[in-house]
Design goal:
Elements (H helix, E strand, L loop, with lengths): L2 H19 L11 H22 L5 H7 L4 H29 L1 H18 L5 H18 L2 H12 L6 H31 L6 H20 L13 H14 L1 H15 L3 H7 L5 H25 L12 H31 L5 H21 L6 H46 L6
Helix pairs in contact: 2-8, 2-9, 4-5, 4-6, 4-15, 5-6, 5-7, 5-9, 8-12, 8-14, 10-11, 10-15, 11-14, 11-15, 11-16, 12-14, 13-14, 13-16
Length: 428
């Protein structure tokens, strides 16, 4: 590995360490032992669930190619995964709200384990079934667990601001540290130990089974709206009505889809009342848009290196720094979007609405995968940059709507207080 990579990695490590050591009492909330136990349990489960997901990612395409499938067949397999997430996601999300988020989390484990098992077969139909199961599991991963956490946090009477602590720690470990370790472990199993490309999927199934055992033994059940009077279609109508009637929810869904279509600063930002998450996320989306535009700019302004296998070019250095900056934006995005979802999405249809948010994302991914040859790399980066800029504008709109709503609520409170003070004393 070249010195530039080591210097960049070392510099980033120093920055993260300095930020962590410079935390003050304002950045560290005083919490209870009961909450810490609850938080650590969720983070452990979430990390195991994400390990089961991260172990598979780098080797899905490689495994299919090892079975002799070309780009066309592999593209169809990937489309099946995203398509099933789009079609079945809203259904399993609604069932999670009605039948219980703990059950949905266990269902995620079982479904993803079955998906991992299909990777042992080279038959196209079996692999297609595995992709469909994986798509369903992905919908549960990004809705059921967060819905269970928010409901359980509120049910146990913990302080609302403590929820941000759990979000930021879960993302740092589950989407950051665990992702790195999972990649190294998968490489160790596949290349160094020679177990082959199926080994990461077997390891993922083991982690998922461990996580499922912890869920079954330590989690309690909670629901969105468990009433039998509401059928599946009614639950969809409730979710759709909530999205269409509340602009904040609609904007939040659009922002999430735009950013996903295209992890320790967040803990400090979320621990302070100012700047508010609706405010600083505008800057995050704008910076992310600029970083994804760098490959397009460098392709036109910086001459490519003519030395095959040589050192990293100047343009490559710029793109690598931009990529690291984008990853920092991703690290801020996840806990921040989780906090906003916990504030704005109604509890009775939380999982359903969260899966509604993923429909535009899955449609976009399926369209791009189906026509991947029609999109040059620079066009793809340009499209992602435009999405992020649009997300920044929508985030601005969300902040304005929130401020208007907050101002009206404050005016109503003040009016009620004035009316109370103006009431004459009833002296009998």
């Amino acid at each position: 590995m070249e010195a530039f990579y080591w210097l960049l990695f070392g510099w980033l490590g120093v920055v993260v360490a300095a930020m962590e050591l410079s935390k003050t009492n304002r950045d560290r909330a005083s919490t209870s032992s009961a909450f810490n136990s609850f938080k650590n349990n969720y983070i452990l489960v979430y990390s195991l669930m994400m390990a089961g997901d991260w172990l598979q990612g780098p080797y899905v395409y490689y495994l299919y190619s090892q079975y002799g499938y070309g780009k066309g067949d592999i593209g169809r397999l990937f489309i099946a995964g995203f398509g099933s997430s789009m079609l079945f996601g809203t259904i399993v999300g609604s069932l999670a709200d009605k039948q219980g988020r703990k059950r949905a989390s266990v269902t995620y484990c079982i479904t993803y384990i079955l998906s991992c098992m299909t990777k042992h077969s080279p038959q196209f139909k079996v692999l297609m079934l595995g992709r469909v199961l994986g798509g369903i599991a992905t919908s549960l991963l990004f809705s059921a667990f967060e819905s269970w956490l928010v409901a359980e946090h509120n049910k146990r009477g913990f302080e609302p601001q403590w929820l941000s602590i759990t979000f930021s720690k879960a993302i740092f470990l589950g989407n950051g540290l665990v992702a790195i370790i999972s990649g190294l472990f998968a490489n160790l199993l596949t290349d160094n130990l020679g177990f082959g490309p199926v080994a990461p999927f077997d390891a993922a199934a083991c982690f998922l089974a461990i996580g499922m055992a912890i869920i079954l033994s330590t989690w309690t059940e909670n629901y969105g709206d468990p009433s039998d009077s509401k059928g599946l279609l009614t639950q969809f109508q409730v979710a759709a009505s909530a999205i269409s009637s509340d602009e904040k929810i609609a904007l939040l869904g659009a922002i999430q889809s735009l950013f996903e279509g295209s992890i320790s600063i967040a803990s400090r930002l979320l621990s302070r009342p100012t700047p508010r998450v609706e405010s600083y996320m505008q800057l995050v989306f704008t910076v992310a848009a600029v970083t994804l535009l760098l490959p397009v700019i460098t392709s036109y302004l910086v001459a490519p290196s003519t030395v095959k296998g040589g050192s990293i070019s100047f343009g490559g250095c710029i793109q690598l720094v931009g990529f690291c900056t984008f990853e920092a934006c991703v690290g801020i995005f996840w806990p921040s979007i989780m906090k906003m979802r916990s504030q704005y999405i109604p509890e009775e249809a939380r999982s359903t609405i969260m899966n509604f948010f993923r429909i535009p994302l899955n449609i976009f991914v399926c369209l791009v995968l189906y026509n991947v040859s029609a999109f040059p790399m620079t066009v793809m980066f340009g499209m992602c940059s435009c999405f992020l800029l649009l997300a920044s504008f929508l985030q601005r709109r969300l902040m304005m709507v929130t401020e208007i709503h907050r101002s009206k609520s404050q005016d109503w409170t003040d009016m009620k207080e004035r009316d109370t003070e103006a009431e004459p004393l009833n002296i009998g």
